[in-house]
Amino acid sequence: MTAAHPDLRFSFSRPGFVTFKQENADEAFPEIPAPVFVRLWGESVAQARSAEEIPQLAALIPPEAVVRAFDRDQYVPGEEPDDWTRGRGIAATGGLPTATEREPRPGEAVYDLIWIDERHVFLGRHVHTDRLSPAAGNIPPLAVPEHSPSRAWLKIEEAILRFRPVMQPGWTALEIGCAPGGASTALIDRGFSVTGIDPQFMADSVMASGKFNHIRKPARFVTPEDLANVNPDWIVMDMSIPPEDALGELSHVVKTLRDVHGKKLATRRGFLTIKLNDWKYAERVSDYLSRLRKIGFEEAQATQLAYNRREFFVYSPKFKI
Ligand SMILES: C[S@@+](CC[C@H](N)C(=O)[O-])C[C@H]1O[C@@H](n2cnc3c(N)ncnc32)[C@H](O)[C@@H]1O
Questions:
Q1: pTM score, two decimals?
Q2: Does residue 150's CB lie within 6 angstroms of at least one atom of ligand 1?
């Protein structure tokens, strides 16, 4: 942020919540052009620094405004304690208005009451866009269904909610790094047939679905024979290997698909998770995006989904045949 906006000064911050001060208050509110690791951002309207000040924030919210109330992120997704529930910090704070039910329209200001800790609550304001979930904190309320063998179900479902891709029953997806099968479960439930590439075993529920075909090997060893009958509408990737290796293996699979299907390749979208096995890789996001565009994933855009862990997500709405 400070590299892009040298006039900003790092200010009150806690894990999962950062603020910056603008040197010159008259200047326009700075935009973040392509935020990857920022899920929601906006202008700070006011802050309460003690429990007594918290009710005063309510008076600053215009009467008809859409209000969302949520807690700062305190845990890595998937590492929350058993007794934790989302939003319990803000819910325990007295004197604040409850969130409105109404969904914001694109372009409309949303007032965010953000619980930081027992003493601090911030009131912020962000502009809603059709790329944001209308849910509090841009976190779609999703829960892994019992029949899903992994929490990776959340990521593909969140991506579908966020990017709203066209889907037709009977389409096929190729998933690279598919075991044990959370994302495959979500796709099969949405009417897809799935071919998955992974040396690990799939959950019995996925294998028994009648909609799943397993290529049980690392992606780099996939052959034209493996993909002779696989012409995927979507390519999904979620391999637990460093980014450069994952992009190398993805590139091999795409080349093999092109060799097999040529101009008849049906691929139109990419849903790609890139693991940040080391945080140093976060600096190279734009290099990874350039490489993905070269592989064929046009207009690839990176964002860290609410249900991503130490990884980020790339959505590509267009594939170059
Ligand atoms: C996070 S898990 C995938 C979760 C899965 N997408 C789901 O929905 O349940 C990562 C997977 O990547 C697989 N993997 C690692 N290296 C791979 C490779 N070279 N080719 C294919 N899969 C690989 C692992 O075996 C592991 O099952």
A1: 0.94
A2: yes
Asked whether residue 170 is assigned to any structural domain, the reply reads: yes
Minimum CA distance residue for ligand 1 atom 27: 179
Lowest mean pLDDT among 78-87, 138-147, 199-208, 263-272: 78-87
Residue 165 lies in a domain: yes
Give 309's pLDDT tier (boundaries 50, 70, 90): very high
pLDDT at 100: 80
The whole-chain average pLDDT of the chain stands at 94
Residue 218 in contact with ligand 1 by CB distance below 6 A: yes
In short, whether 152's Cβ falls inside 6 Å of ligand 1 is yes
- Judge if 13 and 121 occupy the same domain: yes
- Which amino acid is it at 104? P
Domain interval for residue 26: 8-138
Q: What is the DSSP annotation of 187-254?
A: HHHTT-EEEEE-SSPPPHHHHTTSSEEEE-S-GGG--TTTTTT---SEEEEE-SS-HHHHHHHHHHHH
Q: Are residues 66 and 190 in the same domain?
A: no
Q: Is the CB of 239 under 6 A from ligand 1?
A: yes
Question: Which domain-ending residue is among 112, 138, 164?
Answer: 138
